[in-house]
């Protein structure tokens, strides 16, 4: 199994073991746990998304603490002219486990475990999402543009910062 255990020191000095893995299994436990992480995702839609993962349209990675999923990230695989490219989406760390370096470690782990031909990662992030932008900058992502009115959040348009990182 594609897994890696990484000890992380919490601020109170307690060491926690985090496991990282490429998500292959989509048994009921995993689906329920993902549903807990993303309460706004419907169970059926998770099932559909995981079926797509099977066809390798995208790849998901998760982080676990004590066997419980605490973080998730997905990469949409580029095809044809864009076969060297992936788009990073749906990065999420459980609220109680933020600021422990989990997102940074999960992204670094996942970038090392993408298919060999992938050399460029792109992403779009809400311009006002400072935690995520700080994280991406720390991971070496560079800004390459601003997409105005890129998404609609709570009925309001939101601009997205476009970022990229060369990984080879
Ligand atoms: C953004 C998110 C994934 C960060 O996860 P995390 O595990 O807490 O991040 P890490 O602990 O690995 O932090 C790494 C760096 O990111 C930055 N960062 C993370 N959270 C931050 C915050 N609340 N404020 C400012 N900077 C922050 C810091 O530079 C941090 O390094 P530092 O701790 O040495 O200062 C998490 O807050 C989250 O799930 N947010 C909701 C979903 C989301 O916005 N996803 C991104 C969609 S594009």
From TrEMBL:
Transmembrane segments: none annotated. Gene3D superfamilies: 3.40.630.30. Pfam families: Acetyltransf_1. GO terms for molecular function: acyltransferase activity, transferring groups other than amino-acyl groups. Residues 18-168 form the N-acetyltransferase domain. The keyword Nucleus does not apply. Keywords: Transferase. PANTHER family: L-AMINO ACID N-ACETYLTRANSFERASE (PTHR43617). This is GNAT family N-acetyltransferase. The lineage of its organism: Archaea, Candidatus Iainarchaeota, Candidatus Iainarchaeia, Candidatus Iainarchaeales, Candidatus Iainarchaeaceae.
């Amino acid at each position: 199994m594609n897994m890696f255990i990484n000890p992380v020191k919490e601020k109170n000095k307690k060491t926690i073991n985090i496991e990282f893995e490429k998500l292959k299994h989509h048994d009921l436990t995993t689906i329920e746990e993902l549903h807990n992480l993303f309460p706004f995702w419907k169970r059926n839609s998770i099932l559909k998304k995981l079926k797509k993962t099977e066809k390798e349209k995208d790849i998901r990675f998760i982080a676990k603490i004590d066997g419980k999923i605490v973080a998730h990230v997905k990469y949409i695989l580029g095809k044809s002219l864009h076969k060297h490219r992936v788009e990073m989406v749906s990065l999420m760390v459980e609220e109680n486990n933020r600021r422990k370096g989990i997102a940074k470690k999960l992204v670094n782990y996942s970038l090392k475990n993408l298919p060999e031909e992938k050399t460029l990662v792109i992403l779009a992030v809400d311009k006002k999402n400072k935690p995520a932008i700080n994280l991406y900058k720390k991971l070496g992502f560079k800004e390459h543009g601003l997409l105005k009115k890129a998404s609609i959040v709570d009925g309001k348009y939101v601009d997205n910062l476009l970022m990229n990182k060369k990984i080879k």
